[in-house]
Every structure is written in C-alpha cells, then in structure tokens.
Amino acid sequence: MSESVFTTDELAWHAWIAPVDPETGSAAERDVIEASVWPNSPYFRLLARHPESLRTRTDVDKAVFLGRPGLRRGERELAATVVSRVNGCVLCTSVHSRFTITFTKREDDVLRLLSDGVDTPLDDRWRAIVDASAALAAVPIAFGPEHVEALRAVGLNEPEILDVIQSSAFFSWANRLMLSLGEPAHPDAHDAEALSDQQAADARARAAE
Amino acid sequence: MTDIIDDLAGLDASASAALRGHRPDVVASAQASYDALLPAALDADPVKDFGLDLRLLVALRASVLEQQEALVAHYAARLGDAALVDLAVSGPDRGLGLAASTRLRTILRHTDRLVLRAASATQSDLHALQAAGLDEASIVVLSQIASFVTFQARVVHGLRVLAASTSIATSNGVTR
Fold first, then answer.
1. Spatial CA neighbour of A6 closest among A143, A120, A123
2. pLDDT tens-digit series, residues A98-147
3. How many Å is the Cα radius of gyration of chain B?
4. DSSP string spanning A1-41?
5. What's A71's DSSP letter?
6. pLDDT at B175 over 60
7. Of A114, A143, A162, B153, which alpha carbon lies 20 to 30 A from B100's?
C-alpha cells in the first residue's frame, strides 16, 4: 500500500475561529447545538454562529442518510467517503469510511479506496457507485448519463440513484465547511468530550447494522 | 411556494413527484436551507452584517465557478445590481475584481477557494477575512453559502441528468 494521509482512525477537529461557548451562547445557538449530530463538537458549535442554517443542514444530513427505504445505508456512506476522499477531507473520510466498513463489512475495499484512491479495482456495483460519486465531486460536475446507465446496469432504481446523487451532493457541502473552518488533529485529552459523540455514533452504527 | 431546486432543475410538480417524491424530508430541508441562508429579507436573521447583496454575490460567484447556467441566471436575477453581477463573473483577479474593495476581493477569494480547492484552506485565510471586517458569524454565513451552493448545484445537475434519462420533461426557463 502507498503512503496516504487518509485513515479510518478516530480524529479530532480544531476550529480556526471561536465556536459558540454553550455556557454563554444565546438560546437559539444552544438549541441548534443540542439538535446537531455531535453537540460536543467544536465544528457544530462553530456552525451555530448562524443557528438556522445549522438546524436545516442537520435536517438535510439526517434526511439524506437515514431516510428509508432506498439505497442501503452502507452505500450512501460509500458515496460520502468517495466525495470526501476526492475533496481531500481527511476527517470526513475517516468518519464515513468507518461507517461504510461497519455497514458493508468490506474493510479491504474501503482501505484500498483510502490508500490508493477512487480508481482502485472494485466489483461492478461499487465501481458504478464510486465512479458516479467521484464525478459528482468534480468541479465542474462530471456526472452524466453514462453514470446513470452504469448504476442502472448494476441494479439501482431511480430513487436509489437519487440517493447516490444526494449523498454525494451533501458531502460536497459538508467537506467544504470542515476543510475551511478548522483542521483535523490527533486526539489528546482535551478532545475527549468532543470525541464522545463520534464514539457513540460508531457504537450506534455497529448496533444497528 | 415554489421549490427552488425544482425551479432550477426545470421540474414541474409531476416530474418532481416522480423523481424526488420518495424523499420528502430532503426536499423540505434543502428548501429550508436555501431560505435560511438566502432569504428574501434578513428581518429574522441574526447575522445582518453579512447582508443580502454579499450573500447573493457569494452564491452567484459559486454558481459561475460551477458553470451551472440555471443557478447563474437565478442568482444574477436576485442580485440585480449589474456592477455586482459583473464582479461575480470577473472574480477577484481580473476585470472589475481588480478595482474592488479589499473586503469584496477577500470575500470573492475565499469563495473561489471554497468551491475550487477547499483542501488548501488555512487559518490565515480566515484571519484575512477577519482583517477585512468579517466576524465569526459572517465567516460562517459566507462559508455556508458557498458550500451550500455546491450541494444545490449537484442536486440540480443530477436531477436534470436523471430526468433526461427517464424522458421526464424539464423546462429551461429559470430566473428566480
């Protein structure tokens, strides 16, 4: 395997500008922090500077990834992992590669996606999903009818194809925020509280799969 | 109420129901995100320092970089001001951008970085925004808008590709 900064290890995230302090924040700020995916994370506490857009962003996240029925959760997480890998978001890649492995049990494939990149050899179904997600990550967008055809050929119906599109689109949004407002860090004792949400999310995923 | 993604993708109600109907929560939350970041007026918005002209300038610049014509037409129509539209098309480093204020150039520069090469962002980019007069909340709003538009562009583009492949009719007409 080649050297790669991408990892399935748990990482912390440190903000470059001051997040909301839950002790002193407004009621609106505290409400959206509590409703966010990880209330102890400095990332969501920073996004709470504009409460309404954090609230609606959390709603999009949950609707795209948890809505049923549709594409399997593990394959939505695969799309999230691919877009994060293409955009260079080390932290998003670490979180969503762990989810992908938990839900699909395909650790070898996921680790190769991280170390070798999105063109690593895969079976036909993952090839089609990975190619479509990578084309959606590109600027300008490279997703075209050939990707829809390839997804259909491996058995995805239209709602499932839209799940690939919307999972990829959401991570185009999420990656940019995480990449530009702070940076990943190897966790130390100060990160324990923030990481507790990630750990709980991983445990819930393992229990649900 | 018009759904902005349906409008931008050229989907009428029946086409929208056929393509997007299985995820009503995505439809509603995507619309709510647009309304939260780019509302008609900022009366209910706590971050008035980053005003509607700036918000629409960022959205338009992101749409130009994404080369999404329907989004460009929409945000240009909402922005209205011809000089600001030209500025968004020029970007920070040519044409009107060269003569723009440091504040506007810094905002455009950060928008370009977010859309095209977000992984190259550093803390000094945020310090540059602070030096240009943006507080934390304004930086979050700028970042959310540029990033949200990349989401909106992909859903719109994907729906158009999907509609074409299923012979669901779309219209071209989109302004606002």
1. A120
2. 999 999 999 999 999 999 999 999 999 999 999 999 999 999 999 999 99
3. 17
4. ----S--SS--EEEESSPPPPTTTS-HHHHHHHHHSS-TT-
5. S
6. no
7. B153
Compare CB distances from A59 to B32, B146, B154 and report the shortest one's residue. Answer: B32
Asked if the Cβ–Cβ distance from B37 to A53 is below 8 Å, we say yes
CA–CA min distance B98, chain A (Å): 24
Tokens of B110: 């950060």
Q: Which residues of B touch A151 (CB under 8 A)?
A: none
Q: What's the CA gap between B160 and B6, in Å, rounded?
A: 10
The CA distance from A143 to A165, in Å, is 9
Contact status of A5 with chain B (Cβ, < 8 Å): no
Whether B172 shows a pLDDT value over 70: the answer reads no
B103 interface with A at CB cutoff 8 Å: no
- By Cβ distance, the residue of B25, B33, B118 closest to A175 is B118
| Residue B176 pLDDT > 60 | no
* Rounded-to-integer distance, Cα B130 and Cα B36, Å: 23
Fold for domain A71-180? AhpD-like (1.20.1290)
Q: What is the pLDDT of residues A38-51, one digit of tens each?
A: 899 999 999 999 99
Across the interface, do A162 and B162 touch by the CB < 8 Å criterion?
A: yes
Domain ranges of chain A: 12-65+181-208, 71-180
pLDDT at A3: 60
Q: How many CB pairs under 8 A join A and B?
A: 173
Q: Which pLDDT band holds residue A193 (cuts at 50, 70, 90)?
A: confident
Look at B148 and A16 and tell me if their CB atoms are within 8 Å: no
Q: What average pLDDT does range B67-93 have in this prediction?
A: 97
Minimal-distance CA residue of chain A relative to B63: A140
Domains in chain B: ranges and CATH: 4-165 (1.20.1290.10)
